[in-house]
Amino acid sequence: MPQTVTPGIEAAPDTRLRWWTELPLILLVYACYTAGRLLARGDVSGAVDHGLTILRVEKVLRINAEHPLNRLFTNEAWLGVPADFWYASLHYVVTPAVLVWLFRSHAVRYRAARTWLMTSTFIGLIGFTLLPTCPPRLLSESHGFVDTMAQYSSYGWWGGEASAPRGLGGMTNQYAAMPSLHVGWALWCGVMLWRHGRTRAAKTAGVVYPLVTTIVVMGTANHYFLDAVAGAVVMGAGLLLAPHVTRVAERAGTRLRARFTVVSGGAPSAHASIVSAGCQTSAGEHIPRQRDSRFAGGAEPSASPTDAGDGAPAPAR
């Protein structure tokens, strides 16, 4: 029996999450992040000036915690080496792991969390572009910082130039210090673990991970304290903008789906709305082709007052 569609009621678009669409999107955002760091190299002297300005502001405010932490990590290898591994590796592991965990266990929350992370990342790229900043480890020795990544490079897979693999230090922007997305991403992971973790261990990790990451980025002389603060501010801005980004993306997706449907499906055929499939009934008949079955000989009955309708004259009696 043919199905009819009630006018005004359409099937809702399929919004289920699929890994084969999410993975390319995340890889695209990370590629943009990496490319943005490379393109926003900026002027080296300007980056050094920005770094020194941040350091002077911190000294005035007495919040330059980088110096004591860096001395501690430099003098104590049992702290410095794990800190370098933490800085060079965990943001590549923990952030994707939390994304996968949300995708599999908290799909309802995943889309908003992913949009928040991506929006904040793009805001961070704007910061790299507008304010290239020399990290403490690249300042002259007179400022009292030691590059622990270079000091302990023989222990790890990174080179002496940056946290990139050996020989690839020239392929990364070492002046993309403001804001610290290491801290920003760790804060995002911490919020997700605290809000959606069901065990005490998960909630504890949600507090410990961003705090330790903040200490690590300063102790390894990769970021200033204000870089870490800026990373938290960027995540806050991304959280506020994420709903607007979601609405814009949904509108764009709806328009694309509508356009694709029109192009692929074409105009609906006119005969689709005729339920009788071309078989019309005459006056007084309720079943198509009723006359064929009742008058097999081909004779047609004479019109009666009922068949003729109200406007036909009645036959003489």
- The run of helices and strands is HHHHHHHHHHH
Q: What percentage of the residues does DSSP assign to strands (E)?
A: under 5%
Overall 3D shape: globular
Structural class: mainly alpha
Rg (C-alpha, Å) = 34 Å
Largest sheet, strands/sense/barrel: none
Helix content: 55-70%
Please, how many helices? 11
Number of strands: 0
| Unreliable sequence segments | 1-14, 267-277, 293-299, 301-312
* Oligomeric status: single chain
| Cα end-to-end separation | 46 Å
Roughly what is the average pLDDT, rounded to an integer?
77
Structural overview:
With 317 residues, this protein is mainly alpha-helical. The chain contains eleven helices and no strands. The longest helix has 41 residues. 29% of the residues are buried.
Q: What are the defining features of this structure?
A:
317 residues; mainly alpha; 11 helices; 0% strand; disordered N terminus
